[in-house]
Design a protein that fits this description.
Strand content: 15-25%
Number of strands: 13
CATH class of the largest domain: Alpha Beta
Distance between the termini: 65 Å
CATH topology of the largest domain: Rossmann fold
Radius of gyration: 22 Å
Structural class: alpha/beta
Helix content: 25-40%
CATH superfamily of the largest domain: Vaccinia Virus protein VP39
Number of helices: 15
Order of helices and strands: HHHHEHEEHEHEHEHHEHEHHEHEEEHE
């Protein structure tokens, strides 16, 4: 591919990413993969160059651009060499005077006041830096020292007792240790959510919003596969990924697919029964923009309102499932006050029989009833986590 053809390919990908962000479709990395599946003529260098160009354009603009062309023209304000590719053979059409160009920005203007007081504007650039690749060692089957030797160039993560850190462009899905279930890809911040649960062997643990099961697997590893873990979600596609991952890791985890609106009935057998209920709630994803920068284009005030209402419902659903003296751990990969400290304050105002306990995390900063981890302060994805004990 010529340089101009690469720019045109990036524009076509960005058009799909913009439409997907508007219509709540697949993420950008899935769109890039799908794009090149039908374009076998593109070599590995071309694919890498086009992907990098598209993601630079995504990171450049906080607001959703009008089009992929506008996104690249906006990026050209920082990379003027791109302008020479317009009008070239197999490249984008020549530039017309007055064409729209996406404005540069890090955080959507409407969202700036929603951030936790701890996230100063000086921290915003770190929200869009390329993230490293973190692995969680399966402590039930191996040690960090063994895996450190198995992955040359890796280093220990500074906080998690289970983590290894590799360069951001590392590939591990064909590594023998990954295929044997000795490691899983998991950001250190996500590992710390599992650590905050203080799980012990023989605990009864409910992962209420398990998704593909990353934290359920971490909890199984932390308890040497001796805890009774139930992983629930109402997303069949995501939850279906857990069983094969558990088999690879040698973990026994019960899986329950929940029906939207009937969750309380389907979990009635766990009333007052769980030692730990983890609510890793759906959220804005503002703490993971360095991995999914187009997440800024997906979020709207209306969507944020719906998410915060759902988080409140999930906390109220989870509370009665915790046994007296048990623990409710709430987490979101968000840096927004309404989704973090605000949710805990509201929950405590509705339920008087709960108290906040300090989380056993040697990272983050105190934020209301929990702790906030941020990319700039902790070199992890952004997470809010709180631990509540039922009297």
């Amino acid at each position: 591919m010529t340089p101009a053809a690469r720019v045109q390919a990036a524009i076509e990908i960005l058009d799909e990413v913009i439409a997907s962000a508007r219509d709540d479709g697949p993420p950008a990395d899935v769109i890039v993969t799908r794009y090149f599946k039908t374009r076998r003529y593109a070599g590995s260098k071309d694919r890498r160059a086009v992907r990098d160009l598209a993601f630079r354009a995504i990171r450049h603009s906080a607001e959703r651009p009008e089009s992929g062309r506008a996104a690249i023209l906006g990026l050209a304000s920082a990379e003027p060499e791109l302008l020479a590719q317009f009008g070239e053979i197999r490249g984008p059409d020549a530039i017309v005077a007055g064409e729209p160009a996406a404005e540069p920005g890090q955080v959507p203007s409407w969202l700036a006041d929603e951030f936790s007081r701890l996230v100063a504007q000086s921290e915003w650039p770190a929200l869009l830096e390329r993230a490293p690749l973190d692995l969680r060692v399966n402590a039930a089957r191996t040690t960090r020292e063994e895996m450190l030797a198995a992955f040359p160039g890796s280093k220990l993560t500074p906080i998690s007792p289970w983590g290894l850190r590799l360069p951001f462009d590392s590939k591990v899905d064909d590594h023998p240790a990954f295929l044997q279930g000795l490691v899983e890809v998991q950001d250190e911040g996500s590992q710390l959510i599992a650590l905050a649960c203080r799980a012990r062997a023989d605990d009864g643990i409910l992962d209420l919003c398990a998704g593909a099961g990353g934290k359920a697997l971490a909890l199984a590893s932390a308890t040497a596969n001796k805890a009774e873990i139930i992983a629930c979600d109402n997303n069949r596609s995501r939850l279906s990924k857990l069983s094969p991952r558990a088999a690879r890791a040698g973990a026994t985890i019960e899986v329950r697919l929940l029906d939207g609106g009937r969750e309380a009935d389907q979990l009635s057998d766990l009333q007052d029964a769980a030692d730990i209920v983890l609510v890793d709630a759906p959220c804005s994803g503002s703490g993971t923009w360095r991995r999914n920068p187009e997440g800024r284009w997906r979020l709207t005030p209306q969507r944020l309102d719906r998410l915060t209402a759902l988080q409140s419902e999930l906390l109220d659903l989870a509370g009665p499932l915790v046994k007296p003296g048990g623990r409710l751990v709430y987490a979101v990969c968000s840096l927004l006050s309404r989704e973090g400290a605000g949710q805990i304050e509201a929950f405590l105002s509705r339920h008087s029989s709960w108290t906040v306990e300090e989380t056993p995390i040697a990272a983050g900063r105190s934020d209301g009833g929990g702790r906030l981890l941020t990319p700039a302060h902790d070199s992890t994805d952004g997470f809010f986590v709180a631990s509540l004990v039922r009297e």
